[in-house]
Amino acid sequence: MPVKPLPHPDPLRIYCEFSRAAVEAGDFAAFLDQFALERLPHGPALRSYCNAFHFAVAGYDADPRELYEIPEVRAFYQAFRRAWPFWFFACDLEKPCLQAMTFCCLPSLQVCRRSGAASCRVQLQSRDLGAFLLDNFPGLNLLLDRAGMTEAENHQRSLQIAAYYRRDWKPWVGKSTPNTSA
Known about the structure:
The chain is of the alpha+beta class. Helix content is 43%, strand content 11%. The protein has eight helices and four strands; from the N terminus they run βαααβαααββαα. The protein has helices at residues 20-25, 29-35, 44-47, 71-83, 87-90, 97-105, 126-146, 151-164; strands at 14-18, 53-57, 109-113, 120-124. The strands form two sheets. Strands 1-2 form a two-stranded parallel ribbon. Strand 3 and strand 4 (120-124) form a beta hairpin. Helix 4 packs across helix 6. The longest helix is centred in the C-terminal third of the chain and has 21 residues, at 126-146. The two termini are 14 Å apart. Residues 1-6 and 171-182 have low confidence and may be disordered.
């Protein structure tokens, strides 16, 4: 069954960038002031938040490591996920930000680089990724229900999440869509 986007008459896009100072302080309070569960709308207004968020951290461009190799970024995203477990509902699946956020939350991963290569590969334990996926579906289901989305839409979003994690995002620099693996 092909994965199709959920319909949005006028897609909302919300860009959330956390400064290096906020990351290092573990401070996402300003985000929660606006988007904590008790502040989120219900019904059609919440529906527009599905697939609308793009998350980023700023201030690490000079660091040669990948974001998920930086302990402060890893700790920030781990705490952020515990405080706001709605990534599967909110993240824009056309961008690789959820992948980097996921890598930050996995307990063990290995970054493999070839000498002179611009990109790297990440090796992870499939059980760690499986546990991460299982931990994040309750937040997805909660917001899908709150948005009044149907079982068919829930199923479709779940398929989108599964397809997202099967993508090969290398290298995703300045491209409008990621490469997909067969």
